[in-house]
Fold:
Amino acid sequence: MLLCELCGQALRTELEMRRHLLRAHLERETRCPFCSFSAPGSDELRGHVDSAHPEPGPAPAGGPPQCPVCGETGASGRQVEAHLRSRHGHLLDPPAPGNGQQLYECPMCDLVCADCQILQEHVDLHLEEYRFSEDINVGGSLSDLELAQQLQNEEDRQQGLEEARQEREFQKLQRQYGLDSSGGYKQQSLKNMEREVARGRMSPSEYHKRKADMMESLAFGVDDGKTKTSGVIEALCRYYQNEIKDVRRVWLSTGVDHFHSSLGDRGWGCGYRNFQMLLSSLLQNGMYNDCLRDITLIPSIPKIQSMIEDAWKEGFDPHGASHFCNRLHGTKAWIGACEIYSLLTSLRLKCQIIDFHKSTGPLGTHPRLFEWVLSYYSSNREGSSKVVCTPKPPIYMQHQGHSRTIVGIEERKNRTLCLLIFDPGCPSHEMQKLLKQSSDDTSLKLLRKFVGSLKDKQYQIVAVDGELSPEEKVVSIPEKFLSGSHVNLYQQKERGVLVAP
Structure:
């Protein structure tokens, strides 16, 4: 039995699931990427696009085509279209509220302004009216009651201004952390694909194909694999065996697939992408077959959001759940080390979260972090091989504003350490350079991070090392989340962690 992740309906086979997806979700949502027209099916929509939005053709008879904005003529319709997009693109694609444009509300009336200066002038008019009413009473005597009323009105006005300021700050934080009502992965994917069509970077036919693929992926709850690069760890192992140079010894994690951001999660999805990297490694390791027997494919980002919500329902990290109002699915909320720890523990994976809460080296560096990673990967020292392919999974690493995945560590001949890191912000075509036999130190710059490269104020890491029994999982809930406190670097609120000395 299969469950549609979009509406919750149960289907018996994959064929029934695809029929349900077509009838209940795709055909219902066929909308023209150029205008607000919608159609009951893709054939009708394609006919509308062909008739109402034809491809630019040669200039009509009787004269050259003209720009509708400035009147400039061109040799062909395509030339005028290119001119229109390059010179007047801001008129074609105005920023929507919440997408770069901030609105300002008057704290004294219902007026909404798009410019802070205009709002200030408007508020000044309110204040002038207030001062004018006070001047009328100049020369006369005010009763105690009238004076008290004026003082109360002034206090109410100041309180209104402060409440309006606090509301603007709250809404700003909501937008920053993806907790507003602007939608989640699906909405952002559709919006960005429509924008690509409007700018001529994607054809209507490709738009509808990619939309159908995305809806199928979301319905099954699995990642589409379009941002995945496999085989990098194996390529690194071959490289270090042939080209050691300045490296005395290197430790590598088990195999890891790299995932990077897509149109649906660009700007907020790094935590989810790093979880996909970690999970891809765990699924390749037979040690974790029992914990992950219900997971065979890498889940999509909306599915991961639902999995974290399920962990909260079990009692993991109630403080973190309350911060997100117990809801991630359908939002663009950033997640961090606490949410990754909760999800892994709910899957019965034994892990620890460690907070490197302050610098331990000169110029704001964190050498203790590097030493901890070396200890983690080199705990089972065997033989004297210069390339150690360990059975350890990669490490999730969080700092303010971003997260990455540690897949290994180098010990240089001068005894300095260098982390090897997968960054979800690095696109596939760059990662695939590492798969070539001719890879050299230049391509490794994508991965290498020396001590001087990590100078954020604080770091958190999550490391997996074994399984939990069902009984240990139950015990871990009160042990880790009902006592103590730790810092989530996204939320900056106290919540329980092992702090590095």
User: Anything to note?
Assistant: The first strand starts at residue 2 and ends at 3. Residues 57-62, 91-95, 482-498 have pLDDT under 50 and may be disordered.
